[in-house]
Please model this.
Amino acid sequence: MNIVVCVKYVPDATADRRFESDNTVDRVGVDGLLSELDEYAVEQALQLKEKRADEEVTVTALTVGPEKAVDAVRKALQMGADQGVHVQDEAIAGSDYVATSLVLAKAIEKVGRPDVVMCGMASTDASGGVLPAMLAERLGLPQVTLASVVETQGDQVRIKRDGDTATEVVGATMPLVLSVTDQSGEARYPSFKGIMAAKKKPLETYALSDLGVDAGQVGLEAAWTAVEETAARPPRTAGEIVKDEDGSGATALVEFLASKKFI
Amino acid sequence: MSEVLVLVDHVDGAVRKPTYELLAIAKRIGAPSAVFIGGADKAAEVADKVKAYGAEKVYVVDDSEIRGYLVAPKAEALAQVADKAEGPAAILVPSTSEGKEVAARLAIKLESGLITDAVDVQVEDGTPVTTQSVFAGNYTVKAKVTKGTPIITVKPNAASPEEGAGAGAVEEVAVAVSDAAKGAQVVASQPRQSTGRPELTEAAIVVSGGRGTGGDFTAVEALADSLGAAVGASRAAVDSGWKPHTFQVGQTGKTVSPQLYVANGISGAIQHRAGMQTSKTIVAVNKDEEAPIFELVDFGVVGDLHAVLPKATEEIEKRKG
Ligand SMILES: Cc1cc2nc3c(=O)[nH]c(=O)nc-3n(C[C@H](O)[C@H](O)[C@H](O)COP(=O)(O)OP(=O)(O)OC[C@H]3O[C@@H](n4cnc5c(N)ncnc54)[C@H](O)[C@@H]3O)c2cc1C
Ligand SMILES: Nc1ncnc2c1ncn2[C@@H]1O[C@H](COP(=O)(O)O)[C@@H](O)[C@H]1O
Model:
């Protein structure tokens, strides 16, 4: 069984995230890391493998991103993925969802026909939550997305998810695209052994030419969307803060709400 | 005038409020056409509703063949409606998790650019320009689609619904859905139980509780009810099992943008902020004056929520008389 887990390298949410002058996300000047939400995807991929001890299962961690993005793959290898693929090409910088999904889909095909393409629920920078559906569309696979619980038996997959208006159980047959939420279970930390072992695991780097993708199909110039303007939100003006003493806090709070016509 | 397709957000024919907001936005761009994918028996009722908010056309796709399959059939259906509409000026889809995935597949099918989670859409030089709130609400981004039909998913509260009848001409569309699209099937579904309170993402006021409640949401809920508000929760409260995940506000929960957000016993972690930072007015009650949530507030009370909230609720009830 082949599992490809898509992991994204993102700017650290606790750092000062910002944009470059061409309105692309600053992916170099701000410290980055494996998107926390993709750790859950790696975890579920590893659990799938562990449940199939009697089968040959390969977990491949795949990222599309700049030079440093290899750190995201490394982290996945340290957690326990078997091999890594990093698609890196100058031309990819500034790609939109459509182009990124093209590159990912081609890379997945090159890795080999996977039984499961595992994704996080959303990236912590773009937070679109659309890439898994795009991959399913491009690869012609069913999508079972936003799983909080994943169960498998043979090639059958069942997931539980909190849909927009209902809690649902969804079933599908492999091969498929699966995305998991942060409700799916704590992701493991790399062990010392895992960190050492990761250094010896195969890690390949592909350029666009290796995937048969034309440079003109990707990148900022070819994007089907254009960012016109990025602006830091003006800092909120400091509000009034009172200390509660013998009920004074409640009274002041109610006064404030009334002054704003909320009561 | 070119058509603008609006995917109707509904539960078994009960139209949800964001649909009307999308129709109001559609009017800025062109002639609004509602697309209802649902039960044929509900079509007349839905058509009346969307017509009242300006739909010039109502495409009806009977979903009896595709109900219970995830996302892919809806995307195929919508692509075929777009074909019928002959080059719509834009396609607006509600920014629910399903809506976003439908839009994602549609973008690939129609070879069109996709913009997700718009909080506003205006028209400049004839093209829709979107506003998005990114990086936990710290940045505002303006963007537009440069290829194909602009496909835009729009967040709740991005516009006010505008009443005003459109022609509301109903057109039934028979769509052909491939077997391949029926690969993921809903095998069981438990509709969300109504809390009797406003919907979290649509509410004008949201009152939330975090770890500081210690698991007792009584005071939070009483305050919410006195204000006619929805109840929200931090992930810490959800992870502790005090509230279901559907109450969670934040990066991996709901994004809310109400007129008033009241955070009680919530520290204000970046992931929580991501879901509430764009609220118009923010109030917090927290016993730690150093809590980062106080950096955001218009009004804050340093104190014990179990003392402050019941007294505040009592005073509000008194004022209401
Ligand atoms: C990938 C990822 C995604 C996440 N997504 C989300 C998300 O969507 N939403 C979310 O909320 N979090 C999310 N988090 C978690 C987030 O980082 C915080 O851990 C969480 O928001 C903390 O919740 P809290 O503020 O309730 O708890 P705490 O941080 O523990 O804060 C509790 C606060 O209550 C105060 N307090 C205690 N007792 C009282 C009292 N009696 N009266 C008044 N105040 C009191 C304390 O002073 C403290 O400030 C995510 C984290 C990760 C890593
Ligand atoms: N550049 C990327 N490289 C690898 N995986 C990605 C990339 N971008 C997105 N993904 C995957 O797609 C998921 C959803 O991303 P998004 O639609 O951008 O929110 C992420 O959780 C990842 O699993």
